[in-house]
Amino acid sequence: MLGDVETRSVSPVFVGRADELAVLTDALTRAAAQEPQALLIGGEAGVGKTRLTEEFLCEADRRGAVVAVGGCVEIGAEGLPFAPFSTALRTLHRLLPDELAAAAAGQEDELARILPELGETPRGPHDEESTARLFELTARMLERLAADRTVVLVLEDLHWADTSTRHLLSYLFRALGSGRLVVVATYRADDVHRRHPLRPLLAELDRLRTVQRIELPRFNRAEVRRQLAGILASQPDEDFLETVFARSDGNAFFVEELVASRSSGCLTGLTESLRDLLLVRVEVLPDAAQRVVRIVAEGGSTVEYALLRAVTRLTEDELIEALRSAVGANILLATTDGDGYRFRHSLVREAVSDDLLPGERARVNRRYAEELEADDTLIRADERVIRLATYWYHANDAVKALPAVLAASVAARRRHAYSEQLRLLERAMDLWEGVPQEIRDALRPADYTDVYPPCGCDPATTPLRYLDLLAEATVSARFGGERERALKLTKTALRLLEDGDDPLRAAWFWTERSRLVAGLARGDGWEELAKAQELVRGLPPSQVHADVLVRAASWGMLHSPGPDNLAAAERAVEYARMIGAEDTELNARITIGTLLTDSGEPERGLAEMYAVKDRAAELGLAMLAGRAHINLTSQLESMGRSREAVELAEQGAALVKKSQLRDSEAWVRGNMAESLYSLGRWDEAAAEARRTQSLSSSAPRASACARLSYLALARGEFTEAAAQLAAARAHFGPHDKQPQHRLPLFRLAIGVAAGEGRIADVRTEVAAAVDYGFPLGHHRYAWPMLLAAASAEADARGLPAAEAGRQEALTVLRDAARTLGTPVPVWVAHAEYVRAELLRAEARDTVADWTAVEAAVRPLERPYLLARARHRLVEALLGSGSDRETAAGLLHEAYATAERLGARRLREDLALLAQRARLPLGPACTGAPPVPDTDPVEALGLTSRERDVLRLVAAGRTNRQIAEELFISPKTASVHVSNILAKLGVAGRGAAAALAHRLRLFGPAAPAPGGPLRSEH
Question: Most CB contacts within 10 A, which of 541, 574, 633, 692?
C-alpha cells in the first residue's frame, strides 16, 4: 500500500505555471546567445517552486545544458558559508572536471575557499578586499566555464542562505557580463518578514533590470481539480474537491498531503491544524521509522547514511527497513548522489523538529556531535567543523560547544566568510561565562585567533582571553562590511580595558576604532589615533607600537603634512626591524619615501619607494606592492613626470589585478587617469576614470568623479562638470579633510562657477581654500586652483558684476601664490602663468609676459596648458599690432590641439580670435586669404533685438531696466532673455554676460576687423 501511495501522492501532470515556465525557458534561449540570465522564484512554502524548477531543469537537460543544483542549509543562524554554491560547483566539478580545472587555472588556492576539491585553503591574506577578490574570481570562473556551453545554476531555499551566500549571489547578478549562464534562486516569500536578512537583497535585486523575479500564486479551483485528477488518475468528486480546495487554499503541497492522508487511511487527515496534518502521516509509521524521521529532522537539511546509522544505533537491516517505510510514505527521499536522506519537503521537517521535546532535541544533537567527534569520516571534511559546532551548541553543552564554535569561526575566516565568522564569535562570547575557568584557561590564542599580535607573550602557552574574541570579532565585522557592529565591539573592548593594565591592547583597539570612524565618515580618526599613540609612548618596541606609529605617520602624511610624520615613520621602521616585522617596515618606508618627495628630496624619496616596490613584489606582498605603485605614480605626477607615471601605473594595475586587489587597482587607475589627462590623452583618461568607478565604491570612486569633472570643464561641459563634482563631494563625505581630496574640489568648484559666470562664487571658493591652507607638498593642487581663479578674474575684467571687490580678490591670489613652492619645472610654469593672468586681470600684461609663459610650458608635455598659453600669447601679439605671422602659426597649433582634445570652449575662443583678426585657422602661410568678416553676434543666431537685450544683460541691467531703455514691457524683455539663454546654451544671466564679455561682443574692447584686438594699457 505504501508503494501505491508513493506513486500517486504527486501529480504526474504538471499543472498550471505555463507563463512562469515560459519565462524560464526564454531565459535558457537568451543564455544560449551569450546573454547571462538571472532569475528569482518566490512563493510561499509548498506552492510549487521545486516542481516548477524541476520542469525547467528537464527542459534545460533536453536542450543539452549542464545543470547544477545547490541548496541553502538550515543548521542555525550561522549557516554553512557558501553552502549552495559549494554543492553546485561540486556537481560541475564532477560533470566537467577538465573544463572546471581550466576555468580555475592559476587561482585554485583562492577558489578552494568555495570548492574545497580544488585544493588546500590558504590561511591568508585577509583584508577588506578578500571577499571581493573571491567573488570576482568565482564570477570569472563561471563565465569561462559557460563560454561554450549552457550552464544552469540553481540555488534553492535562499531564505536560509548565510550572509556570504547572499553577498556572492548579489555580486554574480551584477558582475556576470558574458557566457551562456543561467542563475536561478528560489526562496520562501512567506518567510521573508520585514526584518529578514534576505529582504534588503530582494529590494536591491528588484532595482536591477537584468534580474527577473517570478512570484508563484496559489492554484485556483480549476488547477486544484487538475492536480487531484493527476494524483488520483481520475476526476475527483465535487465534494472532495471542495473540501481539499477549502482546506489547502490552493497550496499544491497541502493538496498532496490531504490526498495522501486520506489514501493512507488517516481518519484525522482533515484536522483543523495544518501542522497536525503534516505530522499525522509520520505518526502512522512503524516506531523505528518514526524514530529515524525524528533524528533526521534534527540533523540538518540532509543527513548522510553513515552518520544516520551511527546516531540511530540501529543495525543496518533495521535502519534500512525504517528508511524504506519513511521513503515509501513519501516523507523522506534519498539524495541525488545516493549518499544520504532528506525530507521531501522542508515543511514536514520543520513540523517534526518542532514536535520534539526540549530534552529530546538536546539528546539527539549530543548524539550527532559525539558520533562526529568519534569518526571524522562520517561527513565531508569541509562541513564537519561547522556542523559539529552546531550540534554541540544545540545539545546545550557549553563546555563542548565553546571550542567547537571557535574552531568553526576559524574555518569561516579561512573561507573569507567574515559575516559567518562574526556570528560564530558572537556565539562564542555568549557561551564564554557559562564555561568553567579551567576549561577556558586551556584554550590558546594560537589555535583560534589571528588579528591581535602576540606582543611579547607566547601564544602557545598564554590562555585565550575574552578580549581576544572581541579583537577577532572587530576585524571580522570590518572585513565583512559591518562597520557599525565593529565600532560597537571596540567600544565594549575599551570599556573592559579602562583599568589600564593592558595599554598595548587598548592602543590596538583605539587604532581599529580610528579606521572605523574614518570609514564611517564620523570623523577623520585622529582623536582615536592620538589616544593610541599616548598609550604606547614609552613602551618597549612591539608589533602594536610599530603599527600605531606607521598609521600615525600615514595619517599625518595625508591630513597634516609636517616633519613630525617623517620622525614617526622612521621610528616605525626602527621598531619593525627590532621585532622582525618586514611587512610593517616596508609599509613605513613607503610613507617615508612619500614624505621625502613632498619635503624637497624627490630623488631620495623615489628611490626609497622603488626599493620597497621591488622588495614587496619579491616577497609576494601584493597589497604593499600595490601601495608602492599608488604612491609612486602620484608623486611622479606631482613632479611633472606624467609619462613615467603612466608606464608605472600600467605595470601596477596589472600586478594588483592579478591579485584581485580591487581598491588598489582603483587607486592606481585613478592616478593613471590624472596623468593621462595631463598628457592630453583625454579619451584614455576618461576610460580609466570610469573603470575606477566600476572597481570601487569608496575614495577612489570619488577621485574618479573629480577626474571626470576636470575633463568636462576642459571640454566646456559645465553641467556635467557640476554633476561629477557633486558626486565626488558626496563620496568623500563631510568629514574627509584630506588636502589631496579637498583642494581639487575647490579648484573644480572655481572652474564650474567661472564657466557659469558666477565670479562672486569664484571668490568665495578661493577664500575658503585659502582659509583651509596649502600644506607641505600640496602645491600640485594649489597651483592649478590659483590659475583657474586668476583666469576667471582676468576673463571677468570689465564686467559690472565683477568690479566690486576685484582688487581685494587679486591681492588674495597674489598673497597665496607667494606661499607656494616651485620645486620642479611644471610648477615654475604654473607660477609664471598665474602671474601673467593676474596682470591680464589688471590689463597690464604684455607680449613678454605671455612669451615667458609659453616658453615655460612648452617642454612639459602638457598640450592643453600649452594651447591655453598660446591663446593668450596670440592675443597679446595681435593686440600689440605686431608679428601677425608668428601669431598665425601659434594660433593654428593651439587650434589643432583644442580640436584634437575636444576642448570646445578653447576651440571656440580660438576660432573667434581668428575671425576677428582675419587669420586662417589652417597651416600658417603668408599668402593665405583672410577669414571673411562675420558678425559674431549673428553667428550665435541672435536677432537684432536679442543683440540689444544681450548688450544690456552684459552691462548688468535688470529686466525692468532693459524694458525702460528699449521701450518694451518687462515681460517681453523676460521672453527675450529666455530666448538668448537658450541660444547661447547657458544657465543664467551671469553666464550669458560672461560669455558676451569673453567673446568681446560689445563695448570699446571690440576692435575693428583686421586691427588690434585691444589697446595697450
Answer: 633
